[in-house]
Amino acid sequence: MRQTKGSGCCLLVKEGDRVQVGQKIGEPDTPAGVPVHASISGIIEKIEMCRDRDGNAAEVCVIRREQEEPFYFREKEEGLSEKNNSKHPELEEGQEIQVREIDRIVKKYQWDYRKRLVDLGGISRDEILYCLKDGGIVGMGGAGFPAFRKYATERRVHTLLVNGAECEPYLTCDHRLMLEHGMEILNGARLLARCVSAGKAFICIEANKPDAAAHLKKLLREDFSQVEVVTVPARYPQGGERQLIQTVLGMEVPEGGLPVDLGVIVSNVATAKAAADCVLGGKPLTHRCVTVSGLVGEPGNFMVPVGTSLKALVGLCQGVLTEKNRVILGGPMTGSCVAQDWDGRTEIGTVDKRVSGVTILGRREEKASPCIRCGGCARVCPAGLSPFQIEFAWLKGDKEQCEKLHANQCIVCGSCSYICPAKRELAYHISMARRGEWPVYGKTKTFTGNEEDLQYEKENDDSRIISKKEADEAGNSVYSPGPYLRSGNSTRKIMGHVLISLFPVLVGSIYFFGLRSLLLTVVAAAVCMLSELLWQAVRREQITVLDLSAAVTGVLLALNLPASTPVWAVCAASVFAIIFVKQFFGGIGNNFVNPALMGRLLLMNVWPGTVATSPLPRTLAADGISSATVLASVRSGAPVSYSFWQMFVGEIPGALGETSKLLLLIGFLYLCWKGLVNMGAAFAYIGTAVLVAFVLGPEGLFTGDIPGNLLGGSLVLGGFYMLTDYSFATKSGYLLFGVVAGLITGLLRVYGRYPEGVCYGILIANCLGGLMAKLYRSHVYGTRAKGTEMGKIKNTRASA
Q1: Among residues 351, 459, 450, 354, which one has the least CA distance to residue 402?
Q2: Tell me, what's the pLDDT at 500?
Q3: How far is residue 9's CA from residue 63's CA, in Å, rounded to a whole number?
Q4: What order of strands is seen across the sheet that includes strand 18-19?
Q5: Of 332-346, 567-581, 619-633, minimum mean pLDDT range
Q6: How deeply is 557 buried, as exposed, middle or buried, from its count of CB atoms within 10 A (0-12, 13-18, 19+)?
Q7: Residue 74 has pLDDT above 90, yes or no
Q8: What pLDDT is recorded for position 656?
Q9: What separation in angstroms does the CA of 646 have from each of 183, 382, 524, 667, 719?
Q10: What is the mean pLDDT of residues 202-206?
Q11: Mean pLDDT of the chain, nearest integer
Q12: Which of 193, 370, 438, 448 could form a disulfide with 201 if both were Cys (CB 3.0 to 4.6 A apart)?
């Protein structure tokens, strides 16, 4: 009896009563609710209490099926003819519903509306609103909001968007409806547009459903211009109403506002069909199309009665294929989990008006690890938010910071959690911040990184605090976090790809400088990993050494040092990089500067003799006599004694990893292919540094050595591997970060004490990262003063 959020229904029947399909059996307990109708004909077998998927108590009316007969609720409902002058609760005084006229409409259109575009001139707004309420029509895209409340608005509406952009993975029920019930959808869209006097209705279909778009275009008459079929890009979450408005109309719903504030209403294609069935066909909402997909024997779409057992429905698909599973109502990104490890033989719930699909997925245990600040969540967020920053604020219980970061603008699409390589429950935590539920850590009020111990409390709620682990074990869907699909990426995989990309560079260093380069690299990586392991073990923190981030720090540190560096100095720099630069600030993702560069900086300032000179490559000098770097000659204005080719392939003195620009480029292109680095930022850094060094040359303006500055030092290594470190992340500000770091590096090369400048340039830019992030924040959806004016539709569309 609770088919929508927030309101339920009072039963109108009792055990033993005989009901017919379409008969009203539940009256809403609030004026804002909608009634419930029998979806099959039969006898009320029992009435019991249970909990719905939102955790609310609700009455359940179990009907034993008997032979069904057609039943149109307005023609046969007892006492309906006596309601000729009944008033609609949402209408003003003096507005009356003529039910006999509605019956006349039903008799006139109940078959024609499925075959052709009917004339709606004789149907009034009041009649449509009455039918939407009495027929129990709700939003069928998943929200379940009563349709009559949405369309009873007194605000001016100029556009109706009928949402057929079914973007949720696995779900195809809307696609199937558009192919098989296209005419009902078109007539329903016209009815809903007429109800709010909208001049235009757009049926929005993703580009990956060309057959549905072509079918609806064919059904529209050439001289019929009120309804248009528009094609929108196939991307997630295109089906969100705010994203759909932005794509089709170029408008943004203001923060805290609704689409109707812009004169727009959005409804699902299934809602449009239900409206046509109700108003023109006289049938209340008793059936809906449901997709059953995932790990089942035979996935498919089914038109089922509301209240159908999930056990019976999945049984039609030959049952589940794996015992370790999750049963999700809806799609895997925004749906809710109602059962885990389900055997397919027990009752776990029923189909309500909001259920668009039942998805069975395999269940994998993925433990969350610390955020690495890759910025992936910020780049994919359709609202322009920075989810990782909102989560940090939520973990600290910082309500004010959550508000500043516009946490309430989150649409809970799950994109951030899906892309997160650390497998953090970003969408779940942000939704808790929106609901006013905050973490509790006992007396310490600090987060140790172990999410199994994380507990929550709700504002103004004295109920017992429940831990996430306890809630998951209980299978409580309210606390079961989605999305249930995750990308195949992980912190360990990312670090593994970085190590793979550095392998050619390491091989090149062995070729040019001998096996000592391998020794220094292995020592640096081993000491870094051991330091991190011991620190976390002593402090009883989550062990993260297997994520390989410490190994990457060690390898990069070694590649930034010359082959003549003593082993003890490498060990000291490694311990300093991990303990003092990384772990002192909270571990991976919390260090605000590059640990490997800080390790090199330690040696440059405390033991400068260990890195002052660099041996020649073995291909140039068999005795390995130390020599000044190319940049020393460039700084003094002396001619460089090495050719362009030698500098490009690595036959010059320098650090282990900086000499061969060819091998660095190969490794960098591999990272770009994997989508792990920002190519624009890297080249902006390198280009800016070279340009500044050229303009402010050693002998006056425009006298700098371009090849020498580009290929003679660690500029390429810094741009490809050090600048792109994950200690800084915004959605678009990386380009600014690269330019600023390049500017500092170029100035240091010209006026600084050391001819290199890369180490100091990037580290100073790291320190300025927070300020640059504030100056270059991405636009958050809906934070403009007003929605943009309706302009030309940007996407491909076809009108008939």
Answers
A1: 459
A2: 96
A3: 17
A4: 18-19, 42-51, 57-65
A5: 619-633
A6: buried
A7: no
A8: 92
A9: 72, 47, 28, 19, 20
A10: 94
A11: 82
A12: 193
Cα–Cα distance for residue pair 761/744, rounded to 1 Å: 5
Q: How many CB atoms lie within 10 A of CB 689?
A: 30
* Helix ranges, 542-678 (H): 549-559, 567-575, 595-606, 630-636, 644-649, 661-673
Tokens encoding 291:
């997709």
- Nearest partner of 91 among 136, 126, 133, judged by Cα: 126
Per-residue pLDDT at 593: 87
Cα separation of 411 and 419, whole Å? 16
Note whether 232 and 162 are within 8 A (CB): no
| Secondary structure tally for the chain: helices H, strands E | 30, 23
How far apart (Å, rounded) are the C-alpha atoms in residues 673 and 500?
Answer: 13
DSSP state of 609: G
Q: What gap in Å lies between CA 582 and CA 576, rounded to an integer?
A: 9
φ and ψ at 770, to 5 degrees? -60, -40
| 691 — pLDDT class (breaks 50, 70, 90) | very high
Q: What is the pLDDT of residues 244-297, one digit of tens each?
A: 999 999 999 998 889 999 999 999 999 999 999 999 888 999 999 999 999 999
| 412 torsion bin: left (phi>0), alpha (psi -120 to 50), beta (else) | left
Whole-angstrom Cα distance, residue 405 to residue 358? 34
Q: How many CB atoms lie within 10 A of CB 460?
A: 5
Place of tokens 């850590």: 441
d(CA 531, CA 525): 10
What pairing do the DSSP bridges indicate for beta strands 159-164 and 200-206? Answer: parallel
Q: How far is CA 650 from CA 627, 661, 708, 755, in A?
A: 14, 7, 13, 19
Which residues fall within 8 angstroms of residue 622, CB to CB, at 6 or more apart?
Answer: none
Asked whether the predicted pLDDT for residue 631 surpasses 90, the reply is no
206 beta partners: 232
Which two tokens mark 530?
Answer: 């051991």
Alpha-carbon torsion (505, 511, 515, 516), positive or negative: negative
